[in-house]
Write a structure and sequence with these properties.
The complex is a heterodimer of chains A (419) and B (324).
Chain A (H helix, E strand, L loop, with lengths): L1 H22 L7 E7 L6 H19 L24 E7 L4 H13 L5 E4 L3 H14 L3 E3 L15 E3 L4 H17 L7 E6 L2 H16 L4 E7 L7 H10 L3 E5 L2 H13 L6 E4 L9 H5 L7 E4 L9 H13 L5 H20 L4 H9 L29 E6 L2 E6 L18
Parallel strand pairs in A: 1-2, 1-3, 3-4, 4-5, 6-7, 6-8, 8-9, 9-10
Antiparallel strand pairs in A: 10-11, 11-12
Helix pairs in contact in A: 2-10, 2-11, 3-4, 5-6, 11-12
Chain B lengths: L2 H21 L3 H26 L8 H18 L7 H19 L5 H20 L9 E2 L16 H23 L1 H11 L1 H6 L4 H27 L1 E2 L1 H5 L1 H14 L6 H20 L6 H16 L4 H18 L1
Antiparallel strand pairs in B: 1-2
Helix pairs in contact in B: 2-6, 2-9, 2-11, 2-12, 3-4, 3-9, 4-9, 6-7, 7-9, 11-12, 12-13
Classes of the chains: A alpha/beta (419), B mainly alpha (324).
């Protein structure tokens, strides 16, 4: 009969849950933001880091932080246009499952009665969750998803604060043009990309922009991020000998590439990593000896002590013990843009918030990121998003491009390793 | 009088499922209901070959995925209603079932399971690099409906009743199959393949027919999923978790039983939802710990499935009731 007791417990749990959400009450004057991220599963690390960043951002909005300069809503406690209303965050975990993301978006809208939504990291989950928001007419801020067509599907309620694959590709091309002006030789490039949605979409965008910019792509190598041997790919690169190799890689594979290149004595004039693997905390300690001068992109820079970004980083560090990373920082910036729009709307009415979002116009000095601003086009994409390029100098990345923001001098060609 | 006790649980169940949307009218509860029905459909489809015939396939995602891709592919290529793709999904699944059934049914036990996993994984990887089907990024359905025929509804209610109808058809079919000679063949194969063969059961042919039937319904389940979700990528179509969920649900409820998968889904889906609702937001992974713990408990105390448990209990209750 023990089994029967288990059955009863399970049944009780199932019934209890159905009454749970119904019993939740609405807090009157706060603004509810439902946030859908992968808090467990493959991308849990990114989701968790972003969750901490969103909590820091909510703290900055909800409490008075006059030390943070021009950052909107930092000086005051709460949203001034709404009588100091606070932001209330509700986090849910979609586990990287698009169908679950859809269900959770429905739950946040119909049960928790959130006023706006934000998410969802993986592009697959952003696709399904934004479709729900569109059906219910709730503004959805896509904090950080790469796939180009999340915006541009004719949706009215979807906004994206982060740069996307084509922005990054354009940045690389601008950088190459700049380098050529300085007399560096860039006759051909190679693209090495992991073969899931992230690597594929960024590589596609680079190929397209390269064609427009007349930069010949000598070679494109898609590979599986779980590979344990990449010497075949490196020998291919060695044979074509491109002037720049762009890696779109996750962590373990980017480390493997850098180490194997060093062992096989292959050193292209320049290596550029597309964030992700190159930004992972474990990357620098693993390859510092092998990949000196490797470049990476980041829209986030900690900045000099005393600057707004430096102070934000200190707040984040106090909470998590780590420096703020580019992914979480981009999510945080999207969060601020959303909060700013809610404040300007002066109401929790979804239509008013949507309208305020379309009128968003944040200037560079109001941002924590290296964008040229935040302004959404009719598809909801931020047209002023941009990124910095950084370079591995010794044991840390230094901002080296564009020149007006640079904190260190670009080294070209890269030094590489000892071999 | 003899028939009523056998019939009444079915009637009760049918009534409960029919009126569920009237009681829980919130969109979220309906969505949970739809998820439950979908899980029940795919597990019941798996049950035909995995339960009745005892050929434990752990690669049924291959049929689910084909069924899921077909409607959205038709929409992407020709702008047809996703519904038009369902027959293509079924046709592709049937072809695949015959193609892989012939070699793999020569294997038995774990080897058959491993072969099915391998095929499903191959297809998943292939779809992940195939540009026509959107490669790793996947396919999307119509964002907003052009008409009812797009089956893109704002409300979950139409999905609920469409899914319920499919489940009813599938269960009626299984019910008839159970009583047909074919059903006896399947059970004979499950109990002992050699013995069945020696009694004149066409083993190879029966197994392939079971796989084809199972593949057809699994493919329909996949189509329903992608039409409702409006999105499919290699992981959500062909991922190993899709296959494993079918097996777990059927095994939990009672594999090879008519209502086994339904009962399994009735327990597992609310449990999943409840643990995620309560513990999901913290990001501690507690969802999986609680969920896994309950599965361990059930496996430890009642590995034959809930249905078996019921069959042990109910005669005793019946006797007690009628003893006096």
């Amino acid at each position: 009969m023990k089994g029967f007791r288990v059955l009863k417990a399970v049944a009780a749990a199932a019934t209890a849950f159905t009454f749970y959400a119904a019993a939740q009450t609405n807090a009157a004057e706060s603004v509810k933001i439902g946030i859908i991220w992968p808090l467990t599963g493959n991308a849990a690390a990114a989701g968790q880091a972003s969750k901490a960043a969103a909590e820091v951002a909510a703290d900055i909005v909800n409490n008075a932080h006059p030390e943070l300069g021009d950052l909107p809503l930092a000086k005051t406690a709460g949203l001034p246009n709404m009588g100091g209303a606070k932001l209330e965050l509700i986090f849910v975990d979609h586990q990287g499952n698009p169908s679950l993301a859809q269900q959770l978006a429905t739950r946040l809208i119909t049960q928790d009665k959130v006023h706006v939504l934000m998410g969802a990291y993986q592009s697959s989950c952003s696709f399904t969750a934004t479709a729900v928001a569109e059906r219910y007419g709730i503004p959805f801020m896509v904090g950080e998803s790469a796939a180009g067509n999340i915006t541009g599907r004719g949706f009215k309620w979807v906004f994206r604060g982060t740069p996307i694959a084509s922005d990054y590709a354009r940045t690389y091309m601008r950088f190459f043009a700049d380098m050529k002006k300085q007399g560096k030789k860039i006759d051909s490039i190679a693209i090495v990309n992991e073969n899931t949605d992230y690597g594929t979409s960024v590589a596609d965008a680079i190929v397209e922009e390269a064609k427009k910019a007349n930069v010949p792509v000598a070679l494109r190598i898609p590979y599986s991020a779980s590979s344990t041997d990449v010497s075949a790919q490196i020998l291919q690169l060695k044979e074509k000998n491109p002037d720049v190799v762009i890696f779109i890689s996750y962590t373990a594979d980017s480390i493997l590439y850098m180490k194997s290149m060093n062992n096989l004595q292959y050193k292209p004039p320049m290596v550029i990593g597309d964030d992700t693997g190159f930004s992972d905390p474990s990357f620098i300690p693993a390859v510092a000896d092998a990949a000196q001068g490797a470049m990476n992109r980041s829209a986030w820079a900690i900045g000099k002590p005393g600057s707004t970004t430096y102070k934000i980083n200190e707040m984040y560090k106090a909470k998590t013990g780590r420096d703020l990373d580019d992914t979480s920082a981009r999510n945080m910036q999207s969060f601020f843009a959303l909060a700013d729009a809610i404040n300007r709307a002066g109401s929790t009415d979804p239509e008013k918030i949507r309208e305020a979002l379309t009128k968003t116009d944040l200037k560079p000095e109001q941002l924590m990121m290296g964008y040229q601003g935040v302004k959404f086009d009719e598809t909801g994409q931020n047209i002023l998003a941009a990124t910095y390029l950084i370079q591995l100098h010794d044991k840390s990345y230094e901002l080296v491009w564009p020149d007006n923001a640079a904190t260190a001098k670009l080294q070209w060609p890269m030094t590489g390793g000892k071999n | 009088m003899n028939k009523i006790p056998a019939l009444s649980p079915t009637v009760l169940l049918a009534v409960a499922l029919l009126i569920y949307p009237l009681i829980f009218s919130g969109a979220f509860y309906l969505d949970v209901g739809v998820t439950f029905l979908l899980a029940a459909i795919s597990a019941s489809a798996w049950n035909i070959v995995g339960g009745y015939a005892g050929q434990v396939s752990v690669g049924h995602a291959m049929f689910f995925g084909l069924g899921a891709y077909a409607p959205l592919l038709c929409y992407k290529l020709y702008g047809w209603t996703p519904m038009a793709g369902i027959p293509f999904g079924i046709a592709a699944s049937v072809a695949l079932a015959i193609l892989i059934g012939i070699p793999t049914f020569r294997l038995t036990g774990h080897y058959f399971s491993m072969a099915t996993i391998a095929v499903a994984e191959l297809i998943r990887i292939y779809f992940g690099t195939w540009d026509l089907v959107g490669a790793a990024i996947g396919l999307q359905g119509p964002a907003t409906a052009r008409g009812w025929w797009d089956l893109t509804f704002r409300s979950e209610l139409p999905y609920y009743y469409i899914f319920l109808t499919v489940l009813a058809v599938l269960l009626s079919f299984t019910y008839l199959m159970e009583r047909h000679r074919f059903g006896y063949y399947l059970r004979a194969i499950k109990v002992g393949e050699r013995a069945a063969r020696s009694l004149g059961v066409p083993v190879q042919q029966t197994k392939i027919r079971a796989l084809v039937l199972s593949a057809m319904f699994t493919s329909v389940a996949g189509s329903l999923y992608s039409v409702k979700t409006g999105f499919i990528d290699p992981e959500s179509g062909f991922g190993i978790l899709v296959s494993v969920q079918m097996v777990i649900i059927a095994a939990l409820g009672g594999a090879g039983r008519l209502y086994g998968p339904l009962i399994g889904a009735l327990i597992l889906i609310p449990l999943q939802t409840a643990t995620n609702t309560w513990f999901g937001g913290g990001g501690t992974g507690l969802t999986f710990i609680v969920y896994g713990g309950i599965i361990v408990l059930i496996a430890r105390y009642e590995p034959g499935g809930i249905y078996d448990l019921w069959e042990q209990i109910s005669p005793r209750r019946w006797r007690r009731k009628h003893a006096s």
